[in-house]
Amino acid sequence: MKEAKTTLAVKVNYAVAERVKHFCRERGLKYGFFVEKAILEQLAREELKEDLVDLKNLRELEQQAISLDVYLKKRRV
Questions:
Q1: Which of 29, 50, 52, 62 is deepest in the core (most CB within 10 A)?
Q2: Cα within 13 Å of Cα(30), Cβ side
Q3: What is the mean pLDDT of residues 24-30?
Q4: How many other CB atoms sit within 10 Å of the CB of residue 22?
């Protein structure tokens, strides 16, 4: 089944838009495909940055953590 599509209208710098159009025309790419792929890749990079910050912050708390076995015994599970 095909995924539903929607329109996402954004304003970008004229020069950026022209570069995208030129790039896509030269390579036979559709604008929508190119922009969608670029957005997904940027989202992945931003999420990775957040994950790395979380890892750094949680690593500092790791010394305070107790093992799962100890936790379950305290909870009598």
A1: 29
A2: 4
A3: 98
A4: 10
For residue 63, which phi and psi values (nearest 5 degrees)?
Answer: -65, -25
**42-51 confidence digits (pLDDT tens):** 999 999 999 9
Integer Cα distance of 37 and 43 in angstroms: 10
Using a 10 angstrom Cβ sphere, with 0-12 exposed, 13-18 middle and 19 or more buried, the burial of residue 24 is middle
For 15, the token pair is 């020069």
Q: Can you tell me the distance from the alpha carbon of 19 to that of 9, in angstroms, rounded to the nearest whole number?
A: 18
For position 2, what pLDDT does the model report?
83
- C-alpha span between 28 and 23 (Å, rounded): 9
Average pLDDT, the chain: 94
Contact 19, 29 (CB under 8 A): no
